[in-house]
Design goal:
The chain is built from two helices and no strands. The protein is mostly helical. α1 packs antiparallel against α2.
């Protein structure tokens, strides 16, 4: 396997790991909301869910934009 192929595969796996971490965070927030009895833990759970969804939507896209091949290369 050539070096550019290895680099591309590593970057792809890194982006997928970030997405999986976001999904795990969202699930954790939902579990926290579901099992809480007070208002404060529910608000914290909702904040975790929203931040995890934002992470899923923005971080892999930003990584891909940063790692893309420059024009003319």
């Amino acid at each position: 396997m050539t070096d550019p192929e290895l680099l591309a595969r590593t970057r792809y796996y890194t982006m997928m790991a970030v997405e999986l971490a976001g999904v795990a965070g969202a699930v954790f927030g939902l579990v926290l909301i579901g099992r809480s009895t007070g208002t404060v833990p529910r608000v914290i759970g909702a904040a975790i869910v929203l931040s995890a969804l934002l992470m899923i939507a923005s971080v892999p896209r930003a990584m891909a934009r940063r790692w893309r091949t420059p024009p003319g290369s």
